[in-house]
Each structure stands twice: as structure tokens, then as C-alpha cells.
Design goal:
Helix content is 62%, strand content 12%. The protein is mainly α and 162 residues long. It folds into two domains: 46 residues; 107 residues, no CATH class. A hairpin with a 2-residue loop joins strand 2 and strand 3. The two termini are 24 Å apart.
Length: 162
């Protein structure tokens, strides 16, 4: 019964999000979205966690979206400045970083967040170790690289996914 309730809740939440996002009033569109939402909810039912609504996770998720947006803008400016300067200051390389995140979903979101910020690209994930291609390797030390690249994202993702 608990899984059924989670599936139903996520289906309604996805459909409501679609309704608000698109502003559609067409009942056919809403019903089609409800059907797709139900399929997605059933397929990913094992990833639905309880409690269904956790205000702290919701607030951290919203803050994380804003934080990620700001980090993407800062990284874009950094890369753009490197391109327009007469002498391009880059020192590319792959660094190893460790994450404190325990769930696979949390690690995946972290890896994708790192990849979304220009200048860094997640190459591989092996357990709690991420291999990151970095445009300007300032320090190959694992702890220093982890602090520079990963730590700021982790403080939000630990609350959301662990």
C-alpha cells in the first residue's frame, strides 16, 4: 500500500507540475501527461523514498537549483575570460575527488552538476570516487580538489539524497 501511495502521489505531482509549467487547459494533454507520469512513477517506484513530503528536502532542492545556476554562470564567465585573454591560462588534467554522498542517485546528480559547470567534466564514477577533467588543475591533491570542486555541491545534496 505504501508503494501505491507513493506512485499515486508522484504521478499527481508530475501532472500538476506539467499543468503549472505549460498552463494548458486542454484535458487531453493533461490526461496524456497523467498517463506518462504514471508510467514513469511505476518504472522508478524503487527510487521513491519516504516520507513522501519532506519540507527540508524540498527547500534544499530549491536552494540547490539556484546555487547550481549561480555556479554555472560563474564558471561560464571564468571560461569566457580564459578564452578572450591574450594568453590562455589553462592547465588541463584529470583529478580524483571523493564524495561523502551515500546514494547512487546523489552521486549521479553531483556528477551531472559538475559536468554542467563549464571547465569541469565528470569522466568516471567508481563508488565514492569521481574522476574529473578540470580545465585548470590548481592542485592534484585529492583533498584540495575535493574541497574546490565537490564540497559546495555536497552540502545541499547530502540533505536532499541521504
Amino acid at each position: 500500500m505504501d508503494k501505491t501511495l507513493k506512485i499515486l502521489f508522484s504521478t499527481i505531482a508530475f501532472t500538476l507540475f506539467y499543468f503549472i509549467w505549460t498552463g494548458t487547459k486542454d484535458l487531453n494533454n493533461i490526461m496524456i501527461m497523467f498517463g506518462f507520469s504514471l508510467i514513469v512513477s511505476v518504472v522508478f517506484r524503487n527510487y521513491l523514498r519516504s516520507p513522501i513530503l519532506n519540507p527540508k528536502k524540498i527547500i534544499y532542492s530549491i536552494w540547490y537549483i539556484f546555487y547550481l545556476f549561480i555556479e554555472i554562470i560563474k564558471a561560464n564567465l571564468d571560461v569566457a575570460l580564459r578564452v578572450i585573454k591574450p594568453v590562455i591560462r589553462i592547465n588541463p588534467g584529470i583529478v580524483t575527488v571523493k564524495t561523502k554522498l551515500k546514494t547512487a542517485m546523489g552521486r549521479m546528480v553531483l556528477a551531472n552538476s559538475i559536468t554542467l559547470t563549464p571547465g569541469t567534466l565528470t569522466v568516471d564514477i567508481d563508488g565514492d570516487t569521481l574522476y574529473i577533467h578540470w580545465i585548470d588543475v590548481t592542485n592534484k591533491d585529492e583533498k584540495a580538489a575535493t574541497e574546490k570542486i565537490v564540497a559546495s555541491f555536497e552540502k545541499y545534496l547530502e540533505v536532499i539524497f541521504d
